[in-house]
TrEMBL record, chain B:
Domain of life where this protein originates: Bacteria
Transmembrane segments: 35-53, 65-91
Pfam families, per the entry: DUF485
Keywords, sorted A to Z: Membrane, Transmembrane, Transmembrane helix
Keyword Metal-binding: no
Organism of this sequence: Actinopolyspora mortivallis
Lineage, highest ranks first: Bacteria, Bacillati, Actinomycetota, Actinomycetes, Actinopolysporales
Cross-referenced InterPro entries: DUF485
Transmembrane as UniProt keyword: yes
Protein name: DUF485 domain-containing protein
Amino acid sequence: MIRLAQDAGLEGSNPAINISIFAAFVVVTLVVVLRASRTTKTASDYYAAGRAFSGPQNGIAISGDYLSAASFLGIVGAIALYGYDGFLYSIGFLVAWLVALLLVAELLRNTGKFTMGDVLAFRMRQRPVRAAAATSTLAVSFFYLLAQMAGAGVLVSLLLGIGSAVGQSVVIAIVGVIMIVYVLVGGMKGTTWVQIIKAALLIAGAAAMTLWVLGRYGFDFSALLQGAVDKAGADGQRLLEPGAKYGTSEISKLDFLSLGVALVLGTAGLPHVLMRFYTVPTSREARRSVVWAIFLIGLFYLFSLVLGYGAAAIVGPETIGDAPGASNSAAPLLAQALGGPVLLGFISAVAFATILAVVAGLTITASASFAHDIYANVIKKGEAEDKQAEVRVARITAAVIGALAIIGGILARNQNVAFLVSLAFAVAASANLPTLLYSLFWRRFNTTGALCSIYGGLAVAVVLIVFSPAVSGSETAMLSGVDFHWFPLENPGLVSIPASFLLGWIGTLLSSEHNEAKYMEMEVRSLTGAGAEKASTH
Amino acid sequence: MTTDEFEQRAPAPEQWARAHSSAEFVALRRRLRGFVFPVAVLFLAWYLLYVLLADYAHGFMSIRLFGNINVGLVLGLLQFVSTFGITALYVRFANRRLDPLAGKVRTELEGEEE
């Protein structure tokens, strides 16, 4: 959803205001993170914030994790330019939460400790399944991370007016270093507070702008739509009808279907979302977290519908399309049109904070998976001498991942990496979700099946993306001048998700392994919460 | 599973097996699956129907109902309504019908060792 960076900044934007509001956010969150670090001592503190957050707090943090810059700037921009088709994204992103609520969240909280691998490996052979779970966790987190960091580059040029390659790289590096400090010092507790503060700012800002826009049209949504249609000119009516973006050909329609499936099944397999369920004391609180998250995320997408059409009506698709950053500038331009440079500064700072917070959440997830699944259980075979060593490894990993994210973000700065987010969702939906569902609900499922569905789903998704028009052979492709694509769709979900379910099923039938005792233990644990990890007390 | 910082004696395998075949647990599993599986099929089908309509039935989705509000917008907003509604239904169901049973099985298991 994020377009190419351009050289000039947004007209009328005051970089000084933008930077000072963002700096205030950083100072406040750093103080909070430092306070949180005082009570971060054990592994459970570092990975899962001592499991001491309440359902509502965690729900707000989940919405903070989920509402990335791509979904804030991207969806508002897509609605402003493509109208109804932009709205379709948000519906997939929202309905997906029902999968998490009904099938995954509580059972995962009851069964595992820190990572997705805890649940997938519970009744399987530990080492191979944990290695597979960590591989797909790292893959999803890294694709997502890279997309966020590349987005940071676009935002820098857009909002701070920094056009030079060196200047943008420096800002990306600063953002990355602040994020590493959050994660190293504050652990999960600090990261969670950053998410909560950011989510509150983002939702409050969006709510205020929504009321402002609606107020201009006498709180008549139909009048707002009319305004958008009138401003767009002759073919303005298309903004209200589906098809402006995806209706151009049979392939693009199929692509949309594929995207829709990946969105709805991907959320409940995103490792950084799953890990958040471990930060609450009980499965009942995990349930409450999802309820809060669904409510807040749904509300936010309703706001973004108004903001998208508001940007189309007040700013106009033509101005947005010509602005640096194209569709991504819709929300900032609307803020400027409504409240001048101060509101623009606030919204810009919130967008930065969003990237910072989401990147921190991804980094702690990836580092936890490496330290807990790979280091403690694969390398040390689950006999690690002490938990402190594991947390030390997690901290080192977080610093390494942070450094990789900075380098990746600088390299991907001017690339079209929009497909990375859809790739992250497609891998989560293909590698993680089938394996989670099978291991929670299918008695016969075993190690071979789990390995087939994780590695199979991951491989099919990545291969199809590499040979898709997103990478080569189309106008918007990442590589220009070469064309080696043979898979027609940009999103692989339509093929890779059924393939992973099928592979998991075939793999299971190929092996006779079955641990009935562990199966019974897992089922009782997952449904009742008996023996589940409790909150730490301090 | 090893324990972390606090003492937590894990029930023995036979205790898990006994709990697994207890009448309460069997009823709990039947209730949970009897709710979440049909509801999941239902909302996924409803979502898929919506996506297919938006994808392939442009004419139908563009029919105006009142003012500038067309069928597509109403169906899209209904997806929000159904998501909020299913969430509320599930929470009510889980609080009333699942939690008491789960609590019973859990106390029996964790209490046994005291």
